Amino acid sequence: MSSKTPLSPVIIALDFARRAELDALVDQLDPSQCRLKVGKELFTLFGPEIVRSLQQRGFEVFLDLKFHDIPNTTAAAVAAAAELGVWMVNVHASGGAKMMSAAKTALLPYGKDAPLLIAVTVLTSMHSDELAAIGVAGDAPAQVSRLAALTAECGLDGVVCSAQETPILRAQSSDQFLLVTPGIRPAGSELGDQTRVATPADAMAMGSSHLVIGRPVTRSANPLAALKAINQSLGY
Ligand SMILES: O=c1ccn([C@@H]2O[C@H](COP(=O)(O)O)[C@@H](O)[C@H]2O)c(=O)[nH]1
Prior knowledge:
Helices cover 38% and strands 15% of the residues. By secondary structure, the chain is α/β, with parallel strands linked by helices.
């Protein structure tokens, strides 16, 4: 384990529209407390420079752009993420096996420096009731299980799912298969648009390997205290 590798499984989702707000939060954080996630809003506003600036501060970055395109385009995008030196990058599993395999193959030249490659199954904002309207038969756990099996077959490192599905996925996957879970809500915090949720401690107990946490920390009156309380609840 490198000296900059955090012990905590927490990944903070940096969903900000203003650079000053982002900097005010990141100034309080230390790479030993968490990793950081750059998503669509931040990347669209500030581009690769924002990733580099977080890396220069010693943070490992999850580039959460959820690529979903034809295999050639997705593979090139994943390779671009590898050039940026991110710790983790993702695609949508619903892009299919050819797309995921092309993305995995694109990372081979990077060897041990390749980012972890994971695939989004069913967004944690979605309830099973919504799936029929997009042509998915069955409930969220069944669809997550199906897409996670496909992801594993394609040789990716893991999936994004809700903590609620992790017991099923732990039973069907190797111990090394990463289960990265957003939809994390400490007891009493607002759900917002998330529907398949769990507390940090429950998520870890059920089998999550990493917890993606945004608003419960970033929109807290005291983000550092909120993060420390979460880490403490997990024994870090
Ligand atoms: O299924 C998914 C995939 C990605 N996300 C992202 O995680 C964070 C969650 O933020 P909160 O503020 O804690 O809800 C956000 O950046 C999403 O884009 C997800 O929530 N669910």
